[in-house]
Amino acid sequence: MNTATQNSPSRTETLKARKTHLSGLLKLMGSRWGKNTAIQSLTANAIKAELSLIDQQLKHRS
């Protein structure tokens, strides 16, 4: 039987950490990329969609 360790983060903490990480990536992308290619735009849109999903999950949990 698997038991949860006491040091493992909660799902809410994991979502918040992921949101912070993805937000940082978006800021980094915006500051480093001058002219966007199609792949860069798709990547940014995918990150924004993931952030939106995380926001919904966090709202549902609170």
From TrEMBL:
<protein>
    <submittedName>
        <fullName>Uncharacterized protein</fullName>
    </submittedName>
</protein>
